[in-house]
Amino acid sequence: MIIQPKTRGFICTTAHPEGCAANVQSQIDYVKSCPPMANPPKKVLVIGASTGYGLASRIVPAFAGGASTIGVFFEKPGTDRKSGSAGWYNSVAFEEAAADAGLYAKSFNGDAFSEEMKTTVIEAIKADLGQVDSIVYSLASPRRTDPTDGETYRSVLKPIGQSYTQKNLNTDTGVVDSITIEPCTEEEIAHTVKVMGGEDWELWIAALKEAGVLADGFTTVAYSYIGPDLTYPIYTNGTIGKAKEHLEESTARLNSEFGEGTAYVSVNKALVTQASSAIPVVPLYISLLYKVMKEAGLHEGTIEQIQRLFADHLSSEGGPQLDDKGRIRIDDWEMRDNIQSAVDGAWENVTTENLSEVSDFSGYKNEFLRLFGFGLEGVDYEAETNPERPLPSE
Ligand code: NAI
């Protein structure tokens, strides 16, 4: 079958197996080109391992440190007539590359929030690795069924207390207009915290501890975002920000149980991923940010970010450098004063007419398509390809 992109708003319903493989390979090549790390982890569990920051968090320890990895994700395999999801093809490609390099890699496709998934993963750790020394929690999900009460909670991206009006980019049409988002209810805050807060992260660590599969001195990290004032109402001070606050509270609880230096929140840079493209206002901010950061020679993608997270913090000689709230800040380049003031200036001026001049919207669109394996060099998109690709470890 010939697979072409089919996009609808912030969703692309098709993905290209060879394109996804090329994307994964370019991330592996980048990691291999970097200097060796001081103390890379050896047995790593990545929850949310198939796309975005989680995929990079699987590639870095594997290809920088030779780590064995277990990946958990929620993806759709292809059939003989229908394309699978990008995360599925990424994971197939990752496992194939890991096997070629002689690295252990096993993947589990299903609901990370469920007790069954935790049990299955623990059995695999016991059987194959004995213990894990690093756990990366990189889930981004719109819903979670809580296994304790069976209730399904949905997260929302809304401001708290008052409505929020801001410039917004329609990424389908390239039109810059304005959006008003009405404030959330108390219940929506609670539900967003349930889905995107740290509760499930803590449940994973508790289950791993109970099973005796946490190595002495293990570390665990989850990802957060802060960003500029202009997105505060929809992000940091909005419903998702409350969930990220909860994540930081989870870090404190995990550190008091297992010792300081066990759990970290890493604040990462705004990047085009399947999760971030669904947030109102953020795609316009990212398009402006990319232009400014590329011109300043400071642009990074997920793989460069996570390479830096491990090399300079988690796996460095001196351990992580933390901010005054105890967080790792790999958003430091994004948040530099000169970068933010340049983005602010562009934000004031940007219109539909000057979008391609003042922003990197074409870079945004290219990167969005690359997430699904489209637009990669060396891939023949006119050629027939087989959408049915088994995961080697299944
Ligand atoms: P993404 O959409 O690329 O990845 C989400 C991952 O979660 C995928 O592997 C997906 O399969 C998995 N997943 C979703 N629901 C699942 C479920 N029920 N069971 C198992 N796996 C499931 O997202 P992205 O952007 O990489 O986000 C990861 C984390 O990084 C999130 O906590 C996000 O808030 C954070 N972050 C993202 C930033 C960005 O700009 N993209 C910036 C800073 C932090």
Plain-language structure description:
- The longest helix is centred in the middle third of the chain and has 20 residues, at 239-258.
- The protein is globular, with a radius of gyration of 20 Å.
- The strands form 4 sheets. It has a 7-stranded parallel β-sheet, with helices on both faces. The chain has a two-stranded antiparallel sheet with strand order 1-2.
- It has helices at residues 17-32, 52-65, 86-100, 115-129, 186-196, 199-210, 239-258, 282-295, 302-314, 337-349, 355-358, 361-371, and strands at 7-8, 11-12, 43-47, 68-73, 105-109, 132-137, 143-145, 152-154, 164-170, 175-181, 214-224, 263-267, 328-329.
- The protein has a domain at 8-149 and 187-278 and 301-331: Rossmann fold (3-Layer(aba) Sandwich), CATH 3.40.50.720.
- It has 12 helices and 13 strands.
- Helix 3 (86-100) links the parallel strand 4 and strand 5.
- The model has no long low-confidence stretch (mean pLDDT 96).
- 1,4-dihydronicotinamide adenine dinucleotide (NAI) binds at residues 48-54, 72-75, 87, 111-113, 138-141, 223-225, 268, 270-271, 273-276.
Quick synopsis:
The chain has 394 residues and is an alpha/beta fold. It has twelve helices and 13 strands. The protein has helices spanning 17-32, 52-65, 86-100, 115-129, 186-196, 199-210, 239-258, 282-295, 302-314, 337-349, 355-358, 361-371; strands at 7-8, 11-12, 43-47, 68-73, 105-109, 132-137, 143-145, 152-154, 164-170, 175-181, 214-224, 263-267, 328-329.
Quaternary structure: single chain
Question: Which percent bin holds the helix content?
Answer: 40-55%
**Could you tell me the mean pLDDT?**
96
Elements, N to C (H/E):
EEHEHEHEHEEEEEHHEHEHHEHHH
Q: Which ligands does the model contain, each kind named once?
A: 1,4-dihydronicotinamide adenine dinucleotide
The main pleated sheet reads as: 7 strands, parallel
